[in-house]
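Can anyone check this?
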Amino acid sequence: MLNGLWLGFFLIAALTAFGRWLLGGEPAVFAAMVDGLFGMAKLAVEVMVLLFGTLTLWLGFLRIAEQAGLVELLARLLGPLFRRLMPEVPPGHPALGLITLNFAANGLGLDNAATPIGLKAMRALQELNPSATTASNAQILFLVLNASSLTLLPVSIFMYRAQQGADDPTLVFLPILLATSASTLAGLLGVAVMQRLRLWDPVVLAYLLPGALLLGAFMALLAGLSATALAALSALLGNLVLFSLILLFLVMGALRKVAVYEHFVEGAKEGFEVAKNLLPYLVAMLCAVGVLRASGALDYALEGLRWLAGVAGWDVRFIDALPTALVKPFSGSAARALLIETMQTHGVDSFPALLAATVQGSTETTFYVLAVYFGAVGIQRARHAVGCALLADLCGVLASIGVCYWFFG
């Protein structure tokens, strides 16, 4: 799928360029495409400079959190909830512990730890699955909640905004938090309807109701603030939460007698390796998007959508962020490239760039997650997993649009 998407960007760009040359008499389009190609290659390296530092720093602190037992603590707290949502999994089965560890790691932004733990959890669930090729209810719920992208601290989004010169990289903290909550809730409700889960179980309600009430009260508080106050509060909370978490990791590590410096260095080395391995993918996708933009194909597509939205009487500012939203279910690297390109084209703190950043932080690469998690255990029939996961993505995009108009008007 990714091969086809990447090749498609170049083929569409080529067809558009030849059309502009032969029909519109614009031979300069080819020079613009070559400039876009090499310009994006240079930008990819510039992005990587900050990426090296940020990933090295963050994975160093997260290694301390792991060693201090914070991930295991979150897993124990979430365990009773997943026992009710997956009734076919026996109490005490290893899959429940792995599932809660996976969600705890995702919530903290521990992507490197979350994926291998998630694959182990899927294999453990497959041991309970009566079918070798058809996804069980528990596997579907686990996958959809993974694909709903509940991330409480979107450090990577902050990093890209910082690299592009944002005055306050954490400005999108609250919009992402609200949008990702909406996508996760939509995914859970979609699966609950399909599987007839008992969401009114007292234990489930004990987890969900306080969270829903707190989120509702928080949104009611936000509703009384002006757009300027909302942006200022988002920036304050984003920075405060980020620094408070780092301080929590260090203090808990010290109390647990963790050698914080040594473990920070170990995690930082891993961050350096992760960043180094990302460079080829970033160059590939940014160059493809640069050629697509320079050919005029992306602008033509957006103008068509803008015209349709105008006919419907909608505010059309969200159109320029749609490329990120449309590509994200298929490819995280392509969506990342389109996010950076949107920041470059419109300005890092423009409405399209803020919306694209919110979409990137509240949606997931659904088809990639489906392929990796189900492919790891030989599942061929996904049943309602795809529909529920895409529903979560759609709600995440719609929530992102609504929240960004609310916050950044």
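Reply from J.R.: I decoded it. The mean pLDDT is 81.
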